[in-house]
Amino acid sequence: MEHFLHVFIHYLAEIIPALAIGFFISGLVHELIPEDIVNNFLGVRGIRPILAATLVGTILPVCCWGSLPIAVSFYKKGARLGPILAFLVATPATSVSALLVAYAVLGLKFTIYIFFAVIVMGVVVGLIGNTLKYEPKIAKKETCPHCEANPEHVHTHKKKTVGDRLKSILKYAYIKLPKEIGLELVIGILLAAAVATFLPIGGLIKMYLGGWLSYIFAVAFGLIMYLCSTASVPLIDSLIGQGMNAGAAMTLLLIGPVASYGTVLVLRKEFGLKVLAVFLLSLVAISLLLGLGFQFLVL
Fold first, then answer.
1. Nearest to residue 281, comparing CAs of 213, 223, 218?
2. Residue 97 φ/ψ, nearest 5 degrees
3. Could you tell me which residues are beta bridge partners of residue 262?
4. What is the pLDDT of residues 101-148, one digit of tens each?
5. Please, are residues 233 and 181 in contact by the beta-carbon 8 Å criterion?
6. pTM: predicted TM-score of the whole model, two decimal places
7. What are the pLDDT digits (tens) for 150-180?
8. Which of 85, 92, 103 is nearest to 59 (CA)?
9. How far apart are CA 247 and CA 257, in angstroms?
10. Smallest Cα–Cα separation from 84: which of 131, 56, 42, 115?
11. Under a CB-based contact definition with an 8 Å cutoff, are residues 53 and 89 in contact?
């Protein structure tokens, strides 16, 4: 237990500075980028909204659960299936916080690869989604009851001061966002410490997960257990330290944050079983190929 606590504290000391910076940048993105701009980029046809959805998703400071209501809102505004699926892949797969932690824990090569791998994965899944027969659901525009009763009714909006914006940035960065993904962060760090501490787990990985079987483990574990993109980084580091194939670790880091139970349930409800099946199969296939590519790169 003493060794476990030592490893756990070591991970905390290594990750907290990167998290603090990442959360602050996330607060800036949340406060300063208007929602209308995002909607305008994703609400049109073609490959451009897929690219926009993927790029916005890589920097947007929300996890898989937070991306679901945003994706549904795009769906109701008439966005095509491709940008929606690309957004659901890229948003939880990485973030500013995750990239900073990955750089601190796994190094520059791993960080650069994961960033571009997420972009590739989002774009490819989006393109596959655009090939499916699917009609976007356009919601009726909501009307103001006051305007219906009085056509001369005027909407007034209080302009935010610099102090208000700063307060909003800090509140989102260090209160709301930690509440949203804080539990996943703690669980991820505890799992990492457990893997690095207890020899039975490490011995199992060394014996059975150092070769091709590690890819099967990565897919199964990634589909069954939701991993926050930031919290999964120390877990991946400990798995690699115990002998896991680097490519399989990359596969797990790609698929784990995306394939949550929430994503599965929402896709099944809003888009149907066919879209869900295509999404999951595409996610597994692309993450495996990208993992293999990283393995050959580091050889």
1. 223
2. -60, -45
3. none
4. 889 888 899 999 999 999 999 999 999 988 887 655 544 445 555 555
5. no
6. 0.70
7. 555 555 556 778 888 899 889 887 888 777 6
8. 92
9. 16
10. 42
11. no
